[in-house]
Design brief:
The structure is a single chain. With 609 residues, the chain is α+β, with helices and mostly antiparallel strands. It folds into 4 domains: 109 residues, no CATH class; 135 residues, no CATH class; 190 residues, no CATH class; 151 residues, Trna Endonuclease, Chain: A, domain 1. It contains 16 helices and 30 strands. The strands form 7 sheets. Strands 11, 12, 13, 14, 15, 16, 17 and 18 form an 8-stranded mixed beta sheet that branches. A 7-stranded mixed beta sheet has the order 20-23-26-27-28-29-30, with helices on both faces. A 5-stranded antiparallel beta sheet has the order 4-7-8-9-10. A hairpin with a 2-residue loop joins strand 24 and strand 25. Helix 2 packs across helix 3 and helix 5 packs across helix 7.
């Protein structure tokens, strides 16, 4: 009955009744703040269209049903203190199911007004009452949501406000209150699930923790709302939040783990593939020896290899993870450091965020394992290239134990020595916890040393021969570099006007990179980069990038000139090329050709300006 009535004709009848006046009834249609009797509206509509109103079963319940179906909210006018009623919760439940919102349709607009001024306004009052009890409340009335359809928006399927303890730290964890999609009142502990911080794994962890303590959904059915008042609702939700306050802090601590510090094996290939490590079969029986001393490699040496990057996540292995508790699953921030096997200095490599521990997590391993298996032979060949025990790897291939978003990985371009880590305490492959004091010291060191030039006078001790490694293996090369740098130092000390205390030979660094020779002059620094190739073009190619890095990474440093030093003279094409470069760059650039044959220091360098 009445189902064939046109909503626009009903709306016309309502507007006429508002102008003419009417007698209020216990249940009414809510229209732009006016409360209009349902039966009166039906009678008026039939009168307007010139038809006789059917008399069979014509009662207020039938009128309410039809009007709500047509998009007109029904409210209880006898609720004097503005509390939730069964009628307005039923209206909310029905109206939000309408999916064809049109901002030009006055009926749809009235639904929006109703949701805002009744449903959301009552939820806001609930929130404010909790705020009066000492909770922090965030949120605003927001009855509509943006959509991709032609109208651009739709009705929000629920109401909600966020409620926090007074000393909350994380705004992504909170209690919520509001009206659920099915019209029931709801309060619970929850997280902002749409935030990118929460991975699928982390959401699952939260749900499990919340279920364990019983802090999940608390529903008040529509039919029971008559037994409630503002006082009871506020006190009941307040008591629930108080009861689970300790759980809130426990879950907060679990979701936002402390910062960690872990060591990686020293690597000369940016942790893309292994570099050479001295090892022996005898060491394999000694459990106290480092893994790389036993087998010539370590699993973390592939940590940053792009082969193991899936859907934006880098998969890899970090040894310190194996020392963590089995119930730990996330590291909020992970600083990585390594130890130079010769100098024993500790260097920070970088910082990873939101590191997920996937060891034992079958779903993640099922995703990553095929990729590692696919490249197994490549890994074996890379081990052969550095003379590692590749047969051990074939027998005992490793699986990744972590994943992290590559876009959020902060890897430093140069290794940064951190003084606070240069102690025997930080030698093991452990998941060190970074407390506030250590965190501050690390951050302070990084800020000072990151790409900064700090002049150190004097000359580093050097050797005539050194061992150089690369992906192709190990080779001993004559340290011509040391001979040139020593002679360059002697030459500069004989130059009139140069103070020996203004010369730094292989001591001054920018970040972790050592400048070959640095001369402090009145107009600024003169930087020398030594190359030992007999090909001048090769020397220019290799030296320029380093000179630019030393000169311009720290933009506070004043540079006088840049000098390339090599055991070959500029002639022909190389001279023409060098002159072209001099015209392009703004800083003075020189090439000093060195000769091994001449005994006199004064004759060892031929300078091209």
């Amino acid at each position: 009955m009445f189902d064939d009535l046109d909503p626009k004709e009903i709306e016309t009848a309502i507007n006429l009744l508002i102008e003419e006046g009417f007698t209020e009834t216990p249940y009414s249609v809510w229209y732009e703040g006016n409360l209009v009797p349902p039966k009166t509206i039906i009678r008026k509509t039939y009168k307007l269209i010139g038809e006789t109103i059917p008399r069979h079963n014509f009662n207020t319940n039938e009128a309410q049903r039809v009007l709500l179906k047509k998009g007109f909210p029904i409210v209880d006018t006898e609720e004097k203190d503005g509390f939730f009623t069964k009628k307005d919760l039923d209206s909310f439940k029905s109206l939000i199911r309408r999916t064809e919102y049109d901002k030009l349709n006055s009926i749809d607009k009235n639904i929006g007004y109703y949701l805002n001024q009744v449903s959301w306004e009552k939820t806001k009052k609930w929130a404010k009452e909790l705020e009066n009890k000492g909770w922090v409340v965030k949120g605003r009335k927001n009855w509509n949501i943006q959509t991709n359809n032609k109208t651009g928006q739709d009705y929000k399927q629920y109401t909600w406000y966020r409620v926090y303890p007074i000393d909350f730290k994380q705004n992504l964890l909170y209690y919520t209150i509001g009206i659920h999609t099915d019209g029931q009142l709801l309060y619970k502990l929850d997280i902002h699930r749409d935030d990118p911080y929460f991975t699928t794994l982390l959401k699952s962890v939260f749900d499990n923790l919340r279920d364990e303590v019983g802090a999940g959904w608390q529903l008040i059915p529509i039919d029971e709302i008559k037994n409630y008042s503002w006082e009871r609702l506020v006190q009941e939700s307040h008591n629930f939040f108080q009861k689970h306050l300790a759980d809130y802090y426990k879950i907060e601590k679990e979701l936002w783990k402390t910062k960690r510090l872990m060591r990686l094996t020293w690597n000369e290939n940016d942790w893309h593939f292994p570099s050479f490590h001295k090892w022996s079969k005898e060491n394999q029986l000694k459990k106290n020896k480092l893994y790389e001393s036993r087998y010539g490699f370590a699993p973390e040496e592939w940590l940053f290899n792009p082969r193991y990057r899936l859907n934006g996540f880098q998969y890899g292995y970090i040894r310190g993870i194996d020392k963590m508790k089995v119930d730990e699953y996330l590291i909020d921030e992970l600083f990585l450091y390594t130890i130079d096997p010769i100098s024993k200095c500790r260097y920070i490599i970088g910082k990873l965020k939101q590191v997920e521990i996937i060891e034992g997590y079958d779903e993640e391993l099922d995703c990553a394992a095929p990729v590692f298996e696919l490249h197994k032979e490549k890994m074996i060949n890379e081990l052969k290239a550095v003379e590692a025990d590749w047969s051990h790897f074939r027998r005992n291939p490793f699986l990744p134990n972590v994943k992290f978003k590559w876009s959020e990985a902060e890897l430093y371009q140069t290794l940064l020595e951190v003084d606070v880590l240069n102690s025997d305490r930080y030698t093991r492959f452990m998941p060190y916890i970074i407390e506030n004091e250590l965190d501050e010291l690390i951050q302070k060191d990084l800020e000072v040393k990151k790409l900064k030039l700090k002049f150190i006078k004097g000359e580093a001790k050097s050797v005539d021969q050194y061992s150089k490694t690369n992906s192709g293996g190990k080779s001993d090369v004559t340290r011509n570099h040391s001979a040139i740098s020593r002679d360059l130092g002697k030459y500069l000390k004989k130059v009139k006007g140069i103070n020996k205390d203004n010369i730094s030979i292989e001591l001054t660094k920018v970040g972790s990179s050592t400048i070959d020779v640095l001369l402090l002059e009145k107009e600024g620094y003169s930087l020398f980069e030594i190359k030992t190739n007999g090909n001048t073009l090769m020397n220019i190619r290799l030296a320029l990038g380093q000179l630019f890095e030393y000169a311009f990474l720290d933009n506070e440093v004043k540079i006088k000139k840049l000098i390339i030093v090599g055991p070959a003279e500029l002639t022909g094409i190389s001279l023409k090329y060098f002159k072209t470069i001099q015209k392009i760059i703004k800083k003075p650039l020189e090439y000093w050709a060195y000769t091994f044959e001449d005994v006199k220091i004064e004759s060892k360098f031929t300078i091209t300006k």
